[in-house]
Amino acid sequence: MKEKVKDLINQINLVSEELISLKFSSIINIMEVCGTHTMAIARYGISQLLPKNINLISGPGCPVCVTPTEDIDQIIEIVKNYNVTIYTFGDMIRVPGSQSSLQEQKSMGKKITVCYSPMDALEYAKYHPNENILFLAIGFETTAPLTAIVIKKAKENKIKNFYIYSMHKIVPPALEMLLKDNLTNIKGFLLPGHVSAIIGSKPYNFIAEKYNTPGVISGFEPESILKSILMILTLLKNKKAKILVEYNLVVKENGNIKAIQYLEDVFLPTDSVWRGIGIIKKSGLDLKDEYSQFNAKSIFPVKQLKPINLDECECECGNILKGLKRPTQCKNFKNKCTPYNPLGPCMVSSEGACAAYFKYDIK
Predict the structure, then answer these.
(1) Is 267:168 a contact under the CB 8 Å cutoff?
(2) Predicted structure pTM score
(3) Sign of CA dihedral 101, 103, 106, 107
(4) What is the pairing mode between strands 215-217 and 186-191?
(5) Percentage of the chain exceeding pLDDT 70
């Protein structure tokens, strides 16, 4: 593997020099969209192996990181006002809202349980019919099909005390927002492997066709990431905008048809707020009317809280998620904001850019 990595780095250097001679761009920004890629790039020091004109930037590829403060606040209001038992993935419990967090609510005696799957929550609901079980459904297209399956099972088994609060989001609309914004001057995308295993490569075609920008769906090992970067640079050198698949053992053009069908059966695309970014049209997933009996947002109504003023927020997650800043450019990084006292989810999540920079001491 070491020899393959060395060979890929040499090839990247050669193509990089060719791009410089062609006066392509002084800096070539390549955005990795997936939080797992962010962690792998940090862990293996991949950025440091690249030529100086190749700049890897992190994007909004961490589902916990893009969960808005408003959702955390609404969930906490539900916890305060209703007798519910919350089931949530581990990272979510420490994400700060504007006034509190689920971890703080748990310390005050609220019923909040960390789980590994929505199936855990459904099973508990099945055998505890007198409790209201609320699962916090978070994640991109990778985890949303399992939520859809669980909702279908709840309906089939007539379980009446199980609910979800959907915070599921869809990746392609966020990428289009970044390309429309154009502040980051993205020259290519390192596209997510896990999400693409579900949706396939076809939903990204607009990136090449509409915005003349190449993208490569990558695996997660250093060799795969470096190979994908080389593929992007080669496309740029040849002035070709295409969507290619490096992770071809897992990702197919049309994706996982069965998983996509579950999504379409249960969910409806809706406008959604992304933390630090704002509303992105048709970027969220909410339950269809035929599954409304499981929708915690309507079953447990709470007062609408004042929207968060991003200009007054100390956390710079928005700029980091859009690739406008590196974590080290945030004045609070390693000062006010650490994994032990996080100001925002990018420092909390195991896939967050700030967490990666902190853990691997990236300068």
Answers:
(1) yes
(2) 0.94
(3) negative
(4) parallel
(5) 97
